[in-house]
Amino acid sequence: MLKQPPLTHDRRQFLRLATVGAGALMLTGALPAALAHASPAPKAANNLNPQQALARLMEGNGRYAEGVTKRHEFMSEREALEGGQNPFVAVLSCADSRITPEYAFDTGLGDLFAVRVAGNFVTDDGLASLEYAVAVLRTPLIMVLGHDSCGALAAGVKATKDNATFPGKIQGLADAFKPSVRKVLKAPGDLLANAIAQNVSDTVARLKAESALLADALATGKLHIVGGIYRLHSGRVELIG
Ligand SMILES: [Zn+2]
């Protein structure tokens, strides 16, 4: 697994805020009570339940795929969002430059909380970010978004199948995908495509299993976690898992 990077000022600030959120949860002992102290919710249209959030997300992807995205009023949105945020979705996506979640779902400022890392897998910092979105910002939906021809998963396949080695920290990244790749080594079809889908499914499962905070939100119906694959050719996101 990757080593922890040194703490920057911004990261220290974020972890402090995240700790405050987690502390509030421990004190109250229940997710809904802690959420009563959450930050302001400036976008009324983002106060959705998980099913409504998923429907809105996929409608936005449809507009993007068909080339009929909305005109976004960034000037007025900046003003409205100065005092807080209430994004209706958190997306854990790959860092690949061809996938931009805000574009792919036709969202404006304050709509989509993005956590990005090559290969869209669970890291401690990524999980903390998602917990912050759910517990403090009341985000009702998490999507794990993989994509066609993912270079990170291709490295994971090579590391698993051919014992390939990679320079620098890339080795740790490639190694992180080995458990998912091993599950599909003998499956029919394209190995990379299968590994990409398996990694998304495994990441969804890990988010559900490894965070008490997310599990609480799931159990109370405040949160839904879903996987998707972004198709490079069409721009469409196919839901999986
Ligand atoms: Zn990728």
Automatic annotation (TrEMBL):
Superkingdom as given in the UniProt entry: Bacteria
Signal peptide, first to last residue: 1-38
InterPro entries (UniProt xref): Carbonic_anhydrase (IPR001765), Carbonic_anhydrase_CS (IPR015892), Carbonic_anhydrase_sf (IPR036874), TAT_signal (IPR006311)
Catalytic reactions of this protein: hydrogencarbonate + H(+) = CO2 + H2O
Keyword Nucleus: no
Its EC number(s): 4.2.1.1
Enzyme class, broadest EC rank: lyase
Keywords: Lyase, Signal, Zinc
Biological function: Reversible hydration of carbon dioxide.
Similarity comment text for this entry: Belongs to the beta-class carbonic anhydrase family.
Protein name: Carbonic anhydrase
Gene source species: Pseudomonas canadensis
